[in-house]
Description:
Shape: flat
Number of strands: 0
Low-confidence stretches: none
Helix content: over 70%
Amino acid sequence: xxxxxxxxxxxxxxxxxxxxxxxxxxxxxxxxxxxxxxxxxxxxxxxxxxxxxxxxxxxxxxxxxxxxxxxxxxxxxxxxxxxxxxxxxxxxxxxxxxxxxxxxxxxxxxxxxxxxxxxxxxxxxxxxxxxxxxxxxxxxxxxxxxxxxxxxxxxxxxxxxxxxxxxxxxxxxxxxx
Length: 177
């Protein structure tokens, strides 16, 4: 069954690339014009959100390069250790709100270092699936729709990330001790 499913998945995209233009031809849709229109809208959206995205990326890099991240981790490590939270997971808990790809790379490093079946590996994986890139979402999506006053969105988003981190820790502690 898995072999047939794998074969179907492998042929799905090529099949769609053939069938969709044929269907558009049948419906008399000018595929090229629709494609160009969509590409133009995509570029306009990119130009609209690029300043927000660039500002967020610069702020993250300044935060890391200034040593503020290291200072924050040094401050949080004793508290985390007192609560039984592995200190190695703290950078991931902070980075996840900032960058999805950076958090994924850090999760991969933690799994390579500790193993996929270790408490740290399972906690990192659970955090990766239960939290979101809050600052990225605010910068890109709010920028895309023109939200200028986000009110409490940042505080609520970061609070949700903290709640997800705590829930992931306690769930992993409960299940894998």
